[in-house]
Design goal:
The complex is a heterodimer of chains A (331) and B (357). Chain A is of the alpha/beta class. Chain A has helices at 62-69, 92-99, 119-129, 136-149, 166-179, 196-213, 224-230, 248-253, 258-266, 272-277, 308-312; strands at 13-24, 34-46, 51-55, 77-82, 85-86, 102-105, 184-188, 216-221, 233-238, 241-247, 318-321, 324-326. Chain A has an eight-stranded mixed beta sheet with strand order 6-7-8-3-9-10-12-11, sandwiched between helices.
């Protein structure tokens, strides 16, 4: 199901040298002052209608990257160019107008819906606030349409979130995002809080909506199998940096960065016979603190093939094969 | 090898404002000495409550073990006094929980938490207990164990904390360890480290393990035998190899087909299990899985299927149509047959169907 992408068209989103540092400690309550380099020079683009997967372990900066695109965090430096406008420099008025076209679906369908509002109110509120549909009756009709679009029933508009299952709540979150008629949706771990049997339902729903509405997704997740399923291209993050980015097939069939290789080897496969035969090359050690990242290549302390140079030189993300970028001296 | 733990017709219920929840509804299974058994299922299926019932840690008064037996080394744990039960917990059955931060005491040093059990259960002297604690931390792969004994849990990473919890579970050399989602809170590279550690230690020390998880990959890497739970009941049991190769319950069948796999070519479309998990206060009559089942037939609505041998005692399934499920396992990951239309919610194969009720 590969999508034909007009490569001559400018990308819908381009992130250039994005940096987000958080200052910690040293305040009223003391503690050692330091800088957490949550996102440390990230660049990528997304073409219209495409899904870019963003994978990595907790603390790698994937969620902060998403929040910087939404301008929920103001980046320390770098630019976020969405539909031609740099969101880091546009006026607050323009930002409000543009940002409507970027929506987000959160991980936890329990905490991301207001428990005191009905499902109908949750979906209608942003349309009223942004004056997308000003007439109350038209809004109610639009809510019913959206509920059907995400596989719920019109009468669910009168329910409260607690009366629904996790999968149904996540459908409400999707409907709320669609209400704003977005062109880009940032999906931040949209299925990881759901039961296994429900995850596939939501993934299929996201794929159907993309095909029908021409949506573009940034799909942030830690589950490598889910990301392979839904993404056209995939970026792998480690300690605030993109270490590899490529077409889905190239990344999974021929991973070039040792970290990507380690991640793929670590995923258990639901097949006992295969697991018994499989070699479990375990990456040793743990992710270092982003307060004090290692010198040179940030992965070198855990890397099975690191050489002296990796301790000193920071590897640039370079195009090792056409369309396949990796930040490794040895790739 | 002999049977170490035998859970027999266990029923555990909770009273809630919306009615009685039959969290564990008559389950029976056992663990042999040195064996690793998995209890697999989704949230709310009763797998964790089963573990809590074995340890007699179900929150009272809302929760209550209504009936059944938990026979461990020939004694029914449900008949022991609270004092006797305290000697079983930690001494005879070790425990590993999902979130290492909540199973460690934040205001005690790691050393104190390890030596406490040794002093109480094994009547060790302080210096001996300390020496054993150093040995345990080294065994679970914590570098510089003697120094780290004096540190507090917050000074360790998530993966290191889970190693400490494993060391505590193994401290008194128990013959059985219960591990409830031991790697769910961990990152994938750390999860792999912890799984290898648990596997190596359980083999080396001959410890039997009950691993409770929703992750089918973890079970495949780890378990000898698997019990699949749905809505408070065991719906299928087999050796891990047999269960994955030849699932005989539509729920297991559907679960295995719904997950994308890295070792297989990418599929154009995932095959979810349609519908929602059941409300445990209002279970349907007959088979609880029927509303979501791709293999359902008419009498599933009225007759509750018992666990039966398909074809022998090593593989059991609670499904009237287990033979038909089995025969659909021919090709690799074939789709299930189209379900017969049920009332007003016809299945819409291919597209996301409704999730109305």
């Amino acid at each position: 199901m590969s999508k034909v992408l007009a490569t001559s068209e400018p990308p819908i989103l381009e992130v250039k040298n994005l940096v987000k540092h958080f200052h910690v400690g040293g305040g009223l309550f003391g503690g050692k002052a330091g800088v957490v380099r949550a996102v440390d020079g990230v660049s990528f683009f997304i073409q219209r209608g495409e899904t870019l997967g963003l994978v990595g372990e907790s603390g790698c900066g994937k969620t902060t990257t998403g929040r910087c695109i939404l301008q929920l965090e103001r980046p320390t430096s770098g630019s976020v160019i969405f539909e031609g406008a740099d969101l880091t420099t546009v006026s607050p008025d323009d930002l409000r107008r543009v940002r409507r076209r970027i929506q987000v679906i959160f991980q936890d369908p329990y905490s991301s819906l207001n428990p005191r509002m009905t499902v109908g109110q949750i979906i209608a509120e942003p349309m009223a606030v942004h004056r997308i549909v000003t007439d109350a009756r038209a809004r109610a009709a639009r809510v019913r349409d959206l509920l059907e679009r995400v596989g719920l029933l019109p009468r669910h508009a009168d329910r409260y979130p607690h009366e629904m299952s996790g999968g149904q709540r996540q459908r409400v979150g999707v409907a709320r995002a669609l209400a704003m008629e977005p062109s880009l949706i940032i999906c931040d771990e949209p299925v990881s809080a759901l039961d296994v049997s429900i995850q596939a339902q939501i993934i299929n729903l996201l794929e159907d909506l993309q095909a029908d509405l021409g949506l573009t997704y940034l799909f942030i997740a830690h589950d490598l199998a889910v990301v392979r399923h839904i993404s056209d291209r995939v970026a792998v993050m480690y300690l605030g940096k993109v270490v590899e980015i490529a077409d889905r097939k190239a990344l999974y069939d021929d991973p070039l960065h040792p970290y990507t290789q380690a991640l793929l080897a670590a995923v258990p496969i639901p097949d006992p016979e295969l697991e018994a035969r499989r070699e479990h090359a375990i990456v040793l050690g743990e992710v270092p603190s982003p307060l004090n990242p290692p010198s040179g290549c940030v992965f070198h302390p855990r890397c099975p093939i690191a050489i002296e140079r990796c301790r000193v030189d920071i590897p640039e993300l370079r195009e090792v094969k056409p369309g396949h970028w990796a930040a490794c001296h040895l790739a | 090898m002999g049977v170490l733990l035998s859970v027999q017709s266990l029923v555990t219920q909770f009273s809630t404002s919306s009615g009685i929840v039959r969290a564990v509804d008559g389950v029976s299974w056992d663990v042999d000495e040195g064996e690793t058994v998995a209890l697999v299922g989704e949230s709310g299926c009763g797998k964790s409550v089963t573990a809590l019932s074995i340890m007699r840690l179900v929150a009272q008064p809302a929760g209550r073990i209504v009936s059944g037996h938990v026979v461990f080394k020939g004694r029914d744990l449900l008949t022991l006094s609270e004092e006797e039960m305290r000697r079983v917990r930690g001494r005879e059955i070790g425990m590993i929980f999902q979130e290492p931060m909540t199973s460690l005491n934040p205001v005690l040093t790691v050393g104190r938490q390890l030596t406490e059990g040794l002093e109480i259960h094994l009547a060790m002297r302080q210096t001996d207990a300390r020496a054993r604690a150093v040995e345990l931390l080294g065994m679970v792969g914590i570098p510089d164990p003697a120094r780290r004994l004096t540190q507090y849990p917050h000074q360790f990473s998530g993966g290191m904390r889970q190693r400490i919890v494993i060391a505590m579970a193994l401290a008194c050399n128990p013959p059985l360890v219960l591990a409830d989602e031991p790697t769910t809170a961990l990152d994938v590279t750390i999860q792999a480290q912890i799984l290898e550690l648990m596997k190596a230690l359980s083999r080396r020390l001959g410890v039997a393990m009950l691993i409770i998880t929703h992750n089918l990959g973890v079970v495949a890497r780890y378990a000898d035998r698997v019990n699949v739970m749905y809505a408070g009941r065991i719906v299928e049991r087999a050796s891990a190899r047999e269960l994955y190769r030849n699932p005989r319950h539509p729920y297991t069948h559907g679960l295995l087909r719904s997950v994308p796999r890295l070792d297989e070519p990418r599929r154009a479309r995932l095959q979810p299990i349609e519908g929602q998990p059941p409300d445990l206060t209002r279970l349907p009559t007959g088979c609880s899985f029927r509303p979501r089942c791709a293999f359902r037939v008419e009498y599933c609505a009225t007759e509750e299927p018992p666990l039966r041998e398909v074809p022998d005692a090593t593989h059991v399934s609670a499904c009237w149509e287990a033979e038909r499920v089995g025969s659909s396992n021919g090709g690799p990951r074939n789709g299930p047959p189209s379900p017969p239309a049920l009332g007003s919610t016809p299945a819409q194969p291919g597209r996301s169907s409704r999730h109305g009720e």
